[in-house]
Amino acid sequence: MSNTDPDSEYEALMHVVQRLAERFPDTPEERIRALTVEEFESFDDAHVRDFVPVLVERAVAERLDPTPAT
What we know:
Elements: H1 6-23, H2 29-41, H3 52-64
Helix pairs in contact: 1-2, 1-3, 2-3
């Protein structure tokens, strides 16, 4: 069982959505939120939760802009 506070995790994910919305201004925030939730759910079984928001942000960013960064 995770020791992560669900409220803190939720707040971290809201920051992820905000950063991604700023990074991808042409993408509707609703789409960013939906992708964030989808990616977050893929970590439901993760025992270590500390890095989930970072991993979710990276995965959503790659889905929104799949071209590799130079």
